[in-house]
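Let's study my pick:
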Amino acid sequence: MLVMKSQFFKPFWLRLTAALLFCGLFQAQIAAQTDTEVEEETPNLYTGVSAVILPKDKTEINLINSVSSFWIAVNDYDGDIQATRITNRYRYSRADHLLRVSHGFSKNGRWDLGADLYYTRTRLDDEARSSALRVFGNDNSPDGKTYSGVSAVGVQVRFMPFRKLPELTLRAGLSQPLARSEELRLRLNAQRTQLFLSGVYSTRIGPEFTRLFTSRHEIAPAYGRKQKSFFCTRHRCLYCV
């Protein structure tokens, strides 16, 4: 008889999960008030993602959270039936937390700089029906173990390449692994330096909607035993109110 533990679903973990989901949906942009003559009705806290380059002395803070989970099947070839059968299933869960702080330095408002801090948690459970939310706990048992830590730090620059085309913004950056040991870097999947270049092109559709075309290209140079470089590209089209 299989008995599944439910210790994770204690009030503390429920509150923590709700808080993480809330933080993932909330992104704040804080404007540094350095001019004492700014009018009182000028807000200094904005919600949502800024689609433009930050003006000089303005600061943007984003906290982005994501959780992913999937099964890993163990296959074994059975010579009696000359076929492959699944002998076991594991559950792999991963939680990523990104803190991004950007600040405007340009007087003409065409570029800003940012810093990224990545915190990652991973867990591999022997039971595929285990809850994906167990990645937030520290229940290290024979059937599963959680690994966590600051996985990487990064820097990025966001800029407007053409003054007469403010709808187009580009972002280029670099992230460097920061885990304290090689084993932890392996568990957190943070072994390589990564470079990226992304672009956003926005257009208005009527008075209430905005269409965003995004493109992102990433490259991870060869590292240690990983003798091949990794390249990834993806494109999206989003409609925002």
Q: What stands out?
A: Helices lie at 11-25, 182-187. Confidence is low (pLDDT under 50) at residues 1-14, 20-49.
